[in-house]
Structures are given as C-alpha cells and as structure tokens.
Amino acid sequence: MEALLEPVFVFKLNPSFTSKNPCTVHFPNLPKIPSKPLVVATCCAGTPSPSPLLPQDSDQNPFQLSPDRTRDRRKVVRIAWEKLVRWSRSWRSKAKTEVLERTKKVVVLGGGSFGTAMAAHVANRKAQMEVSMLVRDPAVCRSINENHFNYKYFPEHKLPENVTATSDAKTALLGADYCLHAVPVQFSTSFLEGIAEHVDPGLPFISLSKGLELNTLRMMSQIIPQALKNPRQPFIALSGPSFALELMNKLPTAMVVASKDKKLAHAVQQLLSCSHLRISTSRDVTGVEIAGALKNVLAIAAGIVEGMNLGNNSMAALVAQGCSEIRWLATKMGGKPATITGLSGTGDIMLTCFVNLSRNKRVGVRLGSGEELEDILSSMNQVAEGVSTAGAVIALAQKYNVKMPVLTAVARIMDSELTPKKAVLELMSLPQVEEV
Fold first, then answer.
1. How confident is the model at residue 381 (pLDDT cuts 50, 70, 90)?
2. Smallest Cα–Cα separation from 144: which of 204, 134, 363?
3. What pTM was estimated for this model as a whole?
4. Which of 37, 226, 251, 327 is 20–30 Å from 426 (CA)?
C-alpha cells in the first residue's frame, strides 16, 4: 500500500513504439502525499496538450473589461463625481461674504505687473469698492487715471473704472480696509519707513513680495512690522503659482494666504477668492515665505540649464534637488514640509522653473547662453528678486547649517566667482550619497 502513496508519473510514449503498456516509474524518495490523488503527466510526442491556463485562438483581449464591468466602473466614477459636486455646492452656499460686503477701500502699494493685476482683480470683486494704487511714476499714474491702462506693464488690458492711482501716500492710505504690498523686497524697508506715519496700526498688510532682504536676511513678515515700528501690524503672506498676465486674463489660478491669525487668513480668503481664483489658507508663514523666496533662486538655476542646452534629464534632476534644498532650510527655520510640497512650494517652483514667463528664469537662460549679468539686468524693466536673494539664501544656509549645493552655485554665479559651465561640472562631481 505504501507504494501507492508515492507520486507516480506515467509517460505515454509515441504510438509507434511496440510496447503495449505505458512505462510507469516510481520515485520512492519523494515525500509521500497520503491524502491526494495520483499525479499523472501525459506527454504525447508530436501532439502537445493544450494548456488550460492560456486562451486558445481567441480574439478577445484578456485585459478588456466585460460590458457589465465597464458599466459598473463608470457608475462608480459618476457617483464619486456627483458626491464631489454636491459637497462643493453645499460648501459654496455656506461661504461667508460679509468681508467683501463691508470692505470699502483697498490700497495697493506699487505699480508693477503683479500689483496692477491684483488691483484689477480686487476691483472686479465689487464695483462699489475703491481701489487706490500708490505709484511713484507720474506717467503710470496719469495712464491709469486718464485712460484706465497701466501703459508700462499692461498696455492692452483695460483696468476697472474703480481703480485709481496716486503718488501721495496719505491719500492712498486714508480709510483703507486692506493693503496689498507689491513693492520689491530690497526696496521695501525704505519705502515703508517713508509712509509709516500714514499707516493705521490696525491695517492688515497682504504681502505680494517674495524674497529675502540681502543684508539682514529678513522676510517680509519681519520687514513690514519693523519698518512701520509696529510689531502688531496685521500681516498676511499671499503666494502660489500665479503669473500676473494670466491673472489679468482671469485664467484659473490657485494661491495660498498665510497668517498666524486664523481669522485674518479667512477674511483675506473671502476678499480675494472668486470663480477663477482659489485661495487656500495656512498658518505656516515661514514655510510660505521661504518657499516663495528660494524658488526665485532655483528658477535662475533652471534657466541656466536651459540656456546651456543641458536637456530635460538635467532639468528634472536640478529642480528635484532644489526642492529638497528648500525643504531642508524651511524645516530648519520652523516651516512645515507639507507647505513645501503644496501650492506655495512645489506649485510655485514648477511654474517659475518650467515656464519662460518667469523673469528669474529668463535671467538664468541668458546667463547660460553666455551673457553677462550686468548687461542682463540693465536691459530689464522689472526686478528679478532671485538675483538679490541668492546671497541671502547662502547666509541663511550657513546660519542653520544646511548644505545647499545648487542654490550656493547660483549665488557664486551671481557674484561672478563661478561660470555656469564650471558650476555644472562641480555639481556633477559631488559625492553620490543616499537621497534624503
């Protein structure tokens, strides 16, 4: 009986063989399988047995869903989408609007491209609202007031009728409910000190400026209250992937408002959000500001890669490394990693590094093509914040003991102490370590 419990393999030979009985072979040393049927393998020479596991001569795609399963999948997708839409409508129906209703005047400091775009956006939110732009150029001031155009930056975009311009700080700030600060970072301290006497201590400042002050390493959340000599001046940082031209054209855009005052952040969200501008809120002011400042430096590096025709592989590697460096510094300074991967971090980085509308990237492209920095800057009518911020970034990195090879290379190039080609060679020769 024990022999019957051993696995038996029966080989049926080709019919041309004279043996009338199949050849049976026992394998007594194989493990016994007492409770299972005999294992039989049949091999016929010349006529292989079809495999039951593979489709035989079928035109049907084994990966194609049946009609019933396709209908089920579509139903699941449709139900998920309908739930999302119902939730969205319910949320919008509960959205508060009292901030917009009670806001009578908004002042915009600065007459550049983004300040002008935001002035137009806010003015379009409510026709009865007064939007006053404080500009230093008399020609821009006349252009806005007489023709409703900022001839310097948006000569083809008519501004709303409720946008006016003035060069008088007292007139611009009088009675303002909110202030949009759009003055370049490096000029903000002197500018704010000059208008401080006209600023109400409770006036919320919404900063549109991105960068670090070169000598002091301060962010706008530090510059504004210190320049106004009011540590309690309400502050909000507005940041995210947003080109002024697309905002003027009312293309879908998403941004972040960050403030340590949660109620204030929600108030600014009500003021600015509309059908084509989504506004998220955050309490991570440091993370939002650091990401907004450092992405300009990284954009210069991305431009250099493009100007040198180094290809898409190197571009992706560079931007990924730059994102890591920004995250390392921001978290050392108290920012949250989630902020760096959000709209004001990765979102803004992608826009600035991959699209040629970015003036910081254009500086890099021209540097990579062999032009001198001095010639590039003298030909521009807008400020590329990354040029000034690069040096401040490296000082911060040293202060917080963070290695930032890509952004350090940009600073060295800005100081004319390293050529783009040499920088690339040095970066490619860095030790190959574990990714963090």
1. confident
2. 134
3. 0.81
4. 327
CB 161 within 8 A of CB 148: yes
Nearest to 316 by CA among 368, 354, 274, 363: 354
Cα 22 to Cα 28: distance, rounded to the nearest angstrom: 19
Among candidates 259, 194, 201, 256, which has minimal Cα distance to 225? 201
Q: In what order do the strands lie in the sheet with 105-109?
A: 163-166, 130-134, 105-109, 178-181, 205-207, 235-239, 253-258, 277-282
**Dihedral sign for Cα atoms in the order 210, 214, 218, 223:** negative
Which residues are known to be catalytic? 295
Residue 178: enclosing H or E segment and its boundaries? strand 178-181
Residue 148: both structure tokens together: 């409703």
Place of tokens 């010639």: 375
**268-293 residue pLDDT tens:** 999 999 999 999 999 999 999 999 99
DSSP label at residue 344: I
CA distance 272 to 300: 30
| Cα 227 to Cα 196, 213, 231, 273, distances in angstroms | 8, 12, 9, 29
What is the pLDDT of the chain when averaged over all its residues?
87
| Residue given tokens 């021209």 in the structure block | 366
- The set of residues, in sequence order, having a beta carbon less than 8 Å from that of 293 and lying 6+ positions away, is 185, 210, 211, 212, 219, 385, 389, 392, 393
- Interval 170-229: pLDDT, tens: 999 999 999 999 999 999 999 999 999 999 999 999 999 999 998 899 999 999 999 999
Strand partners of residue 107: 132, 179
In terms of C-beta density within 10 A (0-12 exposed, 13-18 middle, 19 or more buried), how is residue 160 classed?
Answer: middle
Q: What is the pLDDT of residue 410?
A: 94
Q: Alpha carbon 356 to chain centroid distance?
A: 16
- Could you tell me the two tokens for 338? 């989630």
